[in-house]
From TrEMBL:
GO terms for biological process: chorismate metabolic process; L-phenylalanine biosynthetic process. The lineage of its organism: Bacteria, Bacillati, Actinomycetota, Rubrobacteria, Rubrobacterales. InterPro entries: ACT-like_dom_sf (IPR045865), ACT_dom (IPR002912), Chor_mutase/pphenate_deHydtase (IPR008242), Chorismate_II_sf (IPR036263), CM_dom_sf (IPR036979), CM_II_prokaryot (IPR002701), Preph_deHydtase (IPR001086), Preph_deHydtase_CS (IPR018528). The keyword NADP does not apply. Its main location: cytoplasm. The record marks T253 as: Essential for prephenate dehydratase activity. This is Bifunctional chorismate mutase/prephenate dehydratase. Its EC number is 4.2.1.51. It comes from the Bacteria. Residues 272-349 form the ACT domain. Catalyzes the Claisen rearrangement of chorismate to prephenate and the decarboxylation/dehydration of prephenate to phenylpyruvate. The gene is pheA. Keywords: Amino-acid biosynthesis, Aromatic amino acid biosynthesis, Cytoplasm, Isomerase, Lyase, Multifunctional enzyme, Phenylalanine biosynthesis. The keyword Translocase does not apply.
Length: 356
């Protein structure tokens, strides 16, 4: 045992030495970017780094663990270049907070905001370099507040992250038997309703403004439990009494990263566009045929009221590819032939849902 631990100590020392060497390169890159006015956060470059290091993992260390480790290494490296500020839909210990941590790591300054509109406004005013907001849920559909802001904001989508929704029963109590009140956000309570009725039939349910507020109450009130994330339990010093109590096991929320420009091309990208169509039969089919003719896969399409004239709509679409690709340029030109309004609202590295 002593010999094996000595081996680990030697490896740890080498890892620290190499991290220090990596940090010196990061500082020099930061100086280069500052001299040329370049953005510090480079999602395309980060995706390439993460994909490369996970591909290098051929031993016993889990590939998901490699990505998590290097996410924090990149986060620390960015902090050496500048003080990066990221606004997100708060409060702390919510799923959006967790998504921001997955996107940027723990070494940047996270700024919780009370509404989606405030996240956009903070980034637009330059008080934060980036923002993180939810855009859709696999069970509930689109987050309309986010789509409405995207329609009118100069900001661009430069990243995405998928977060499985894992609801847990969390409390300061030692066991579920001592819980008389369960509180949480209405959606969280709805997702866990079947489990709560079956396992805690005598407990009263109460809706509060967020899962984070529910966790706070559970931390100070005897007999109270919350439905929320493991992050909320950790933040408020609570015990996880039961895990994954949500009814749907495939419930996932997609979040987007906002910035002033979209990401560079990586070769595995997605683009987001918003457009309106002329008022005549078959025009939407004709507009979308621009993508089909180029062999481009649409991954999502949503409609929203235009808010300019009653019963008129705009369409949000995500598709695989990047605006720098020739076939994407041709598809967008074809789209413009049928649409009075077309706006590219983002381009970013594609992240498979299971890889987030």
């Amino acid at each position: 045992m002593a010999e094996l631990r000595a081996g680990i100590d030697a490896v740890d020392a080498e890892i620290v030495r190499l991290l220090d060497r990596r940090a010196s390169f990061a500082r020099r890159i930061g100086e280069f970017k500052q001299q040329r006015g370049m953005a510090v956060y480079a999602p395309a470059r980060e995706r390439v780094v993460l994909d490369r290091v996970t591909a290098l993992g051929e031993g016993a260390f889990p590939k998901r663990g490699l990505e998590a480790v290097f996410r924090e290494i990149i986060s620390s490296s960015v902090s050496l270049e500048t003080s990066l500020k990221v606004a997100y839909l708060g409060p702390e210990a919510t799923f959006t907070h967790e998504a921001a941590l997955r996107s940027f790591g723990t070494s940047i300054e996270l700024q919780p905001q009370t509404t989606v509109a405030e996240v956009f406004a903070r980034v637009e005013r330059g008080e934060a370099e980036h923002g993180v907001v939810p855009v859709e849920n696999s069970m509930e559909g689109a987050v309309t507040h986010t789509l409405d802001e995207l329609m009118n904001s100069p900001l661009k989508v430069c990243g995405e992250v998928y977060l499985p929704v894992s609801q847990n029963l969390i409390s300061a109590e030692e066991s579920p038997d001592k819980v008389s009140l369960v509180c949480s956000h209405p959606m969280a309570l709805a997702q866990a309703a079947s489990w709560l009725r079956r396992e805690l039939p005598g407990a009263r349910l109460e809706e509060v403004e967020s899962t984070a507020e529910a966790a706070r109450r559970a931390s100070v009130q005897p007999g109270v439990a919350a439905v929320g994330s493991a992050l909320a339990a950790e933040a408020h010093g609570l015990k996880v009494l039961a895990r994954n109590i949500q009814e749907a096991r495939t419930n996932t929320t997609r979040f987007i990263v906002l910035g002033r420009s979209w990401a560079a091309r990586t070769g595995k990208d997605k683009t987001s566009v918003v457009f309106s169509v002329k008022d005549r039969p078959g025009v939407l089919k004709e507009a979308l045929s621009a993508f089909a003719s180029e062999g481009i896969n649409l991954t999502r399409i949503e409609s929203r009221p235009s808010r300019k004239r009653a019963w008129t709509y705009v369409f949000f679409a995500d598709f695989k590819g990047h605006p720098d690709e020739e076939k994407v340029r041709r598809a967008l030109e074809g789209l413009e032939e049928h649409c009075p309004y077309v706006s590219l609202i983002g381009a970013y590295p594609e992240v498979p849902p299971e890889a987030s």
